[in-house]
Write a sequence for this structure.
C-alpha cells in the first residue's frame, strides 16, 4: 500500500473543496526536492554495513522545511514523501511559518550498539550539512529518534560549519537549547484538541474509555495524560502486542513494566490483545499512535469507537475514511491532532534564534492557544462546508499554502 498515494488522494479530495487552482494542485503533488544517501557504517566488530537514508524537502511555500527523522527497518522513500507532505499541511493547519520535510534511515536501531547509532546519526548529519540549517530545513525526532540523537546531529552540524548552531534541529536535550515542554508536546497538543472535541460532543472525560496503540513518545505520554484527565484507558500496546483490561489499566504500572522488560509481553496488568483487536475494542476513543496504515478498508467496519484521534501520521487510509464517515465515526486527523509536536518545535527554533528561553508554563499556554484555535477553525470549516474534519483541516491548510504561493508571484 503506497502511503504517498494515500496522501495524494487526501490532497485531491480537499483540493476540490478548497477550490484550489490546477496550477497549485500540480505543484503540491510533488516534493520540491529530495535526497537519497547511502551511509557506510563501521560496526563495532570492524565490518562495514551500508544503510539507505532519505531527506524529502516537500514544500517551502510558507517557510523553511521542517520535519522529523525516522529510524525504522521499513522506512522508504514513498513513506518519507508522504510524511514530508503531511508536515507541510500540518504547519499550515496550525498557522506556524514553516514548510514540510521528513527524513529517515532504513535501519532497526535496536540492533545497533549505542556507539554505532551515534556514528550513523553523525554520518546522516554530515550528508545533510549543505541543505539543512535554521533558515533552510530543521529536522526533529520521529519514530525511534530521541533528544540524544538530535544532540549528536546538532553537534556534528555545528562542528562541520564551525559554529554553535542549536537551531539546526529541534527536540534537543534541554542543556543544548531544547525547549521546555517539547517531550510531551505532541501528546499534550492532542489532549487540548480532544478536550475541545469532547466539549462539542458534550461528553464528560469521566465517561470516556480509550484504547491507545503505540507507547513511545506520543502514545505513552498520551495514555498518561488521558489517565490524569479522568479518561479510562482500557488498552495499550507496543510493537510486540498489547494489554487489555475492561475495568481500566493502571497506566503507570504498564509503563513501569515496559521500562523494566522492554515490551508488554506477559504484562500482568490485563489480558493480552493484538494490535489489530485493540483498534476494534468497544471504547469511546481509539488512538492510533504508532505507524501508518492501521485502519484500512479491511477493518474500518469493525471499529466500534465513536472517535478516532489520529496521533500517528497516516494511520487511516482514504478508503477507511469513507467507511468510517458512513458509520458516523469522527476521525480527528493527524495533521491537526498531532501538530503539538511541530508547534513546540517551532517555539524551540524561535527560542534558539532569540537566545532567550521560556519556562514550561509559558510554552504550554502558547501551545494551548494554538491547538484550541486550530481545532475551532477546522471544526468551523467542517460545519460550514458539511465535510469531515480531515478534509476541513486540508481546506484550511491549502488556502494558506496557496495564498503564500500566489503572493510569491509567477516563477
Ligand atoms: P516512538 O519511536 O517513540 O514510539 C513508537 C511506538 O510505536 C513504540 O511504542 C513502538 O513499540 C510502537 N510500534 C511500532 N510498531 C508498531 C506496530 N506495528 N504496532 C503497534 N505499535 C507499534 O515514536 P513516536 O515519536 O511516539 O511516534 C509515533 C507516531 O507519532 C508516528 O507516526 C510519528 O510519525 C507520529 N508523530 C510523532 C511526533 C513526535 O513528536 N515524536 C509528532 C507528530 C507525530
Amino acid at each position: 500500500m503506497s502511503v504517498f498515494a494515500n496522501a495524494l488522494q487526501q490532497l485531491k479530495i480537499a483540493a476540490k473543496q478548497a477550490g484550489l487552482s490546477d496550477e497549485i494542485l500540480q505543484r503540491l503533488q510533488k516534493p520540491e526536492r529530495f535526497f537519497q544517501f547511502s551511509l557506510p557504517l563501521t560496526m563495532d566488530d570492524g565490518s562495514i554495513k551500508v544503510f539507505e537514508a532519505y531527506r524529502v524537502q516537500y514544500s517551502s511555500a510558507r517557510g523553511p522545511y521542517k520535519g522529523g527523522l525516522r529510524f525504522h527497518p521499513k522506512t522508504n522513500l514513498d513513506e518519507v514523501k508522504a510524511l514530508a507532505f503531511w508536515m507541510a499541511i500540518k504547519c499550515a493547519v496550525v498557522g506556524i511559518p514553516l514548510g514540510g520535510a521528513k527524513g529517515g534511515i532504513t535501519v532497526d536501531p535496536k540492533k545497533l550498539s549505542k556507539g554505532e547509532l551515534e556514528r550513523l546519526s553523525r554520518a546522516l548529519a554530515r550528508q545533510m550539512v549543505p541543505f539543512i540549517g535554521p533558515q533552510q530545513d530543521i529536522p526533529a525526532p520521529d519514530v525511534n529518534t530521541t533528544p540524544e540523537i538530535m544532540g549528536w546531529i546538532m553537534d556534528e552540524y555545528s562542528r562541520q560549519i564551525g559554529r554553535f548552531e542549536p537551531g539546526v534541529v529541534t527536540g534537543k536535550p534541554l542543556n543544548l537549547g531544547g525547549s521546555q515542554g517539547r517531550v510531551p508536546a505532541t501528546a499534550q497538543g492532542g489532549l487540548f484538541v480532544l478536550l475541545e472535541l469532547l466539549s462539542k460532543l458534550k461528553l464528560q472525560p469521566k465517561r470516556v474509555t480509550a484504547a491507545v496503540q503505540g507507547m513511545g513518545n506520543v502514545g505513552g505520554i498520551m495514555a498518561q495524560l488521558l489517565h490524569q484527565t479522568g479518561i479510562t484507558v482500557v488498552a495499550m500496546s507496543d510493537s510486540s502486542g498489547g494489554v487489555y483490561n475492561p475495568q481500566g489499566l493502571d497506566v503507570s504500572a504498564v509503563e513501569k513494566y515496559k521500562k523494566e522488560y522492554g515490551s508488554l509481553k506477559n504484562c500482568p496488568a490485563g489480558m493480552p490483545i493484538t494490535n489489530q483487536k485493540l483498534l476494534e475494542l468497544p471504547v469511546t476513543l481509539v488512538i492510533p499512535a504508532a505507524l501508518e496504515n492501521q485502519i484500512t478498508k479491511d477493518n474500518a467496519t469493525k471499529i466500534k469507537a465513536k472517535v478516532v484521534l489520529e496521533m500517528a501520521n497516516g494511520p487511516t487510509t482514504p478508503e477507511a475514511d469513507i467507511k468510517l464517515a458512513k458509520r458516523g465515526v469522527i476521525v480527528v486527523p493527524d495533521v491537526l491532532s498531532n501538530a503539538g509536536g511541530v508547534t513546540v518545535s517551532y517555539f524551540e527554533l524561535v527560542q534558539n534564534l532569540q537566545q532567550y528561553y521560556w519556562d514550561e508554563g509559558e510554552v504550554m499556554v502558547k501551545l494551548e492557544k494554538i491547538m484550541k484555535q486550530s481545532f475551532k477553525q477546522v471544526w468551523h470549516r467542517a460545519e460550514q462546508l458539511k465535510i469531515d474534519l480531515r478534509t476541513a483541516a486540508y481546506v484550511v491548510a491549502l488556502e494558506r499554502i496557496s495564498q503564500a504561493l500566489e503572493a510569491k508571484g509567477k516563477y
